[in-house]
Amino acid sequence: MKLAFTLNGRPCATEAPAHWTVLDLLRDGLSLMGTKYGCGEGVCGTCTVLADGRPIRACLVLAAHARGRALVTVEGLETEGRLDPLQTAFAERGAAQCGFCTPGMLLAAKALLIENPAPTADEVRDALSGNLCRCTGYTKIVEAVLAAAPGSG
Amino acid sequence: MREALDVFAKLDGEARFVAGGTALIPMIRLGLVKPDRLISLNRLAALTEIRLLDDGMLGVGAMATHAEISHDRLVQAGWPLLAEAVKRVASPAIRASGTIGGNLAYAEAASDPAPALMCLDAEVRVASHAGRRAMPINEFFRGFYEAALEPGEIVTGVRVPPPPKGARSGYSKFTARSAEDKALVGVAALIVLDGGRCTEARIGLGGVAPTPVRARRAEATLRGEVLSNAAVRAAAEAAAAEAEPLSDLMGSADYRREMIRVWVRRLLVALRDGTR
User: Fold this and answer.
1) What is the pTM of this model?
2) Chain A contact present for B179, CB below 8 A
3) C-alpha gyration radius of chain B
């Protein structure tokens, strides 16, 4: 199955078996290992990527459905070698512990900030619901997202 | 759509239609279904429409996602109960992929939109190679994960009558672990009060029986009554009594029955007092 879509701002033309999910395509097809395989059932959130600016679970969306869409993975968050403000805030505020949930957290947070540049803490928690951190470091994650929000004081 | 339905009719083996994939892909991964072909409904633009129909009903295409429905101004203004219920489906990423048609076809007992649509007396529209038909949503759920769909039939959308004038409505979702869980008990309710007396009462429940259900006996106890605390408690009691909850890893049948009593009462009180 031939596929053409935008990946991290660049056109991407590739082939994939018809039964592959976006997660299979990213990790096994394109060797982009930033997106993690957690539960495989859409529950844990670590495989979250953006499709046309909206968060999706890469493990639940068929690769065929990526056709013509714009995907952003954690590898695409930086621009010209500079980390996204979310990444900087996560690093500076200790919002990553083991790091396994971090790519999904970053992209779920990115989707929120695209839609709402000045979220409240409750809105951050709501946007990150369904992204599980087994280190339970939620407080620092919420703080980091609030700090990175362009509309925050 | 014609083409998708015709393709299905021509295939032998186990073909499956796929909408958002949020239910089907995990089922495939778990080996619960083993399709040899998938027919995607994703590019059918006509199925994503949300619009006001000529007869005043709301038309929602099957491929409209929960996120699209919850953000839709028309739905928010005229059908707030539906907007509220779809906003409680799982997590933001699931709402961005999952569709209303897929949700109904999956026939999940703990569906969030289903109890709301049952309260609104929605109609489910389906189609296959052989033709189209429609049925009241209250006849759509047949059993545990079983919808009234024949092989080769897809949900094409729902039509939702406007709520009665002056209706107060809300959806409460109780989850045992975290906010994005399936509902342990989901309660949709719509009431109309006339000088304190209840002239209309509809209660839809998710997670309390093998399918989403209307709590008809509880509704009947409310109609014509003044909504005193005692009347509300009696309705909640009736809803708990008529439910047929199942036990699962999230909670026992007894616990669910107790939670029906609590959440039906709380929602009715909040609607009565205008505190939500």
Assistant:
1) 0.96
2) yes
3) 19
